[in-house]
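Running this now, will post back.
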Amino acid sequence: MKTVWYQKKWVIILLHIAFWSLLFSLPYLLNSHEGSHPPPEKTTHTKDLGNYFSWAMNACWVSYFYFNSFFIIPRFIDSRRYWQFALVQVVLFQCMVLVVGVLSKLFFDEFHFNQRGYLFSFFIYLFMFALSTAYQLISERIKADKLEQEKLNENLKTELSLLRSQVSPHFMFNVLNNMVALARKQSELLEPSLIKLSSLMRYMLYEADEDKVSLEREIEYLQSYIDLQQQRFGKKVAVNVALDLLHPDYQIEPMLLIPFVENAFKHGTGQIEGATIDIQLKAENNILQFTVRNKYNPNTEEIKDHSSGIGLTNVKRRLNLLYGKQHSLLISEKDNWFTVSLQIFLN
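Update: finished.
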């Protein structure tokens, strides 16, 4: 999965630096009690020591933040060792109090850390504890969600690949039988039929694995399929085809439309009076309109053939995976006509 810009390491580092800079500059930004006269030398020296002390303490608090986030929480919370976690936090707080005392002695040459300072450090510690804990828990949640999304994407890719691989075994069986018949008759139609079949196989083997193909190439695949079926059924079935592509740059997922055509030839041929199949495709203004109609005999009980393609149920599943609300599929049966109308927003 491609990393978005705000998840890149250098962006995260810059955001952390900006956050700490803003947080620790707030006391200076909010301080409006500066005197108008320049302070005496002793006061200036004391102020400089106070600034150094603040910077040193800020560095300690930042160190605690990342130590708690990246070491303490994963080590104790993730393994549900809550009592040990609480004990470690008490020890860390006492260590921070000791650090405050040591820095106070270092910068001011005296230990002026009273009860008020102890309480103030406690509230800062609680703030940093809550901040680091929230940061780590949210980070872990984001990582878990990202991992789950990657797994979901891989599952979808696998499912789509399986759906594609199930297309047209019944058709291939019938076409090969027809080729055998043409070979026995030494028909001139054998060579062009083999060329069309070779084109179909090349498309299924090499281009069907792509995420998207040109709609023009998909239409060529459909036309070759229809031509082979027309050659097989001859005048027994009237096939009306209108495939209009007004924009050559449109793209679509491969082998998405063929199941509807395959279904029409499967159920629209045989013991049907005036067998007719109508296939219309039109793509313009980023909208694909695809309609397939076939006559059927409602009195004929068909034996389900599990090798006859993926079926309309699986086609619906694939459309939902790929397009979601960016498509509509209407299926109707009326006056001995079975009609499939598909609309897809291509962009």
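The CA atoms of residues 33 and 325 lie 60 Å apart. More later if anyone needs it.
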